[in-house]
């Protein structure tokens, strides 16, 4: 837009110069056609000295009437170019204003989007750190629970190990005691087998035999 404005201004300046030259040309031709005469003094100084005499009055008079002259074609062309340049300059200025308005609007939109993105990012960061804190707290709770469970399992394992050891010892002692009791019972049975027992009860009378 800035380059267009400079080009239009340059074109306008050239057109104005051409208009001036055309006007000077027309005026010069009119003066030549009119034939200017000087009254009382044709080539100053007009013979007056330095004795304080007043300078004679100089008057100009056209010897023939000046007829109207049609505008020179270069003048018309220059005027057309000047008008076109002015129109183009106005359009360029309007375009620059429109572009500046659109650029300002785009900048406002960009600034608003940046602010919205910044606020959204801040909210996202806050929510993210809050979620991270919640997860860390949950992990801490899980770790504490896991530690408590491990402690309980170790306590139970120790308790079960102690019980198993105690049961194993008890079973060992019980086996030894049962072996001893079995040995005593076998010894007693052997002794009892060798000792005579008390007489038994009398048996029933026998039946009579058959007749021969």
Count up the helices: 2
Strand order of the largest sheet: 1-2
Radius of gyration: 70 Å
Q: What are the segments in which pLDDT stays under 50 over at least 5 consecutive residues?
A: 30-43, 47-52
The major pleated sheet works out as: 2 strands, antiparallel
Instruction: Report, as a whole number of angstroms, the end-to-end distance.
Output: 168 Å
Beta strand %: under 5%
* Class by alpha and beta content: mainly alpha
Order of helices and strands: HEEH
Overall shape: it is rod-shaped
**Beta strands, count:** 2
Portion of residues within helices: over 70%
Whole-number mean pLDDT:
74
Protein name: Biogenesis of lysosome-related organelles complex 1 subunit 1
Region (Disordered): 192-212
Organism: Hemiselmis tepida
Keywords: Signal
Architecture overview:
- The protein has about 210 residues and is mostly helical.
- The protein has a domain at about 75-160.
- The chain contains two helices and two strands.
- It has a two-stranded antiparallel ribbon.
- Helix 1 packs antiparallel against helix 2 (about 75-195).
- Residues about 30-45 and about 45-50 have low confidence and may be disordered.
